[in-house]
Design a protein that fits this description.
Layout (H helix, E strand, L loop, with lengths): L18 H30 L10 E4 L2 H14 L3 E6 L37 E6 L1 H4 L4 H10 L3 E4 L7 E4 L3 E7 L2 E5 L4 H13 L2 E2 L9 H11 L4 H8 L3 H15 L4 H10 L4
Helix pairs in contact: 1-5, 7-8, 8-9
Length: about 270
């Protein structure tokens, strides 16, 4: 896909994006997300009405929370080479705290089976995209920091995402509505892989390790860019809103800018996030 006019790669060095150009970029991404979501929803409707053959080798439907959680777990740990996924907010199938190691009371599988692993699949490389709602969830930053420590690639978008997991480019789990997921196999899995690649190209890194900023300042910038309030940011970082405001003010002084919007663009253009 060709770059969107007005994106940073096409602007002269040192120039800031105009309001209309920024809006056009965001609108295009949102259109892609809505279009892919609508296509998957139509696919499910056609499958349910018999327009698409009920072939368990191509499409399967998982409905209960326990079924979805168990199948996602099986898909993740059966992957041989790659795992691509979207993580969104309000995840009732696999709440963020339940995915972290050493959390009391969450060692048992949703169906009462044996404990689920939480250390990730060592045979697969991970590419994960999270949205603003995910960043607001309890323990979200700890979960993402743990992924980064394990070598997973993590990126962020500001638009809402559907819940998605793709294993080896061969199997995709897509949540088409809160209580129902589709498992797609070739050739239909290409719908999910194309959606993922489109969003990945327009996402930004969760954290960068280069540069002089502290990890805390990078997290503050990431949450600010995702639209979280100072209060929500402070809650995620375990500090006070006043402390967040002071650190943002210090970053604005360091960047020699006068507004948070300018700080956001400076941060992105200078690899602060």
């Amino acid at each position: 896909m060709s770059p969107v006019p007005g994106t940073p790669s096409q602007r002269p060095e040192g120039s800031a994006p105009s309001g209309p150009a920024l809006r056009a970029s965001l609108d295009e991404l949102q259109t892609h997300l809505r279009g892919a979501d609508a296509a998957l929803s139509r696919l499910f409707g056609q499958w349910e009405n018999g327009a698409v053959g009920h072939d368990d080798h191509v499409v399967r439907v998982w409905e209960s929370r326990e079924e979805q959680a168990r199948r996602i777990y099986e898909v993740e740990y059966a992957a041989r080479t790659s795992l691509w996924g979207f993580q969104s907010g309000a995840n009732t199938v696999a709440p963020v705290p339940s995915t972290l190691p050493d959390e009391p009371g969450v060692q048992t599988a949703p169906d009462g089976g044996p404990p689920m692993r939480k250390d990730g699949n060592p045979d697969a490389s991970y590419r994960i995209v999270v949205d603003r709602d995910f960043l607001s969830e309890p323990a979200a930053l700890r979960a993402l920091d743990l992924r980064v420590e394990r070598g997973h690639q993590v990126r962020v978008v500001d638009q809402p995402l559907i819940k998605l997991l793709i294993a080896d480019g061969e199997t995709a789990m897509v949540q088409v509505e809160p209580g129902r997921s589709l498992e797609l196999r070739p050739p239909l899995v290409v719908l999910a892989t194309e959606l993922f690649e489109s969003v990945w190209r327009r996402s930004r890194p969760y954290l960068r390790e280069d540069g002089d900023l502290s990890p805390t300042d990078r997290r503050i910038l990431q949450l600010m860019l995702s639209g979280l309030t100072d209060a929500a940011t402070a809650h995620q970082l375990g500090t006070s809103p006043r402390t967040v405001q002071r650190r943002v003010r210090a970053l604005m002084d360091l960047a020699a800018v006068t507004s948070r919007v300018q700080l956001g663009w400076y941060a992105m253009r200078n690899n602060w996030v």
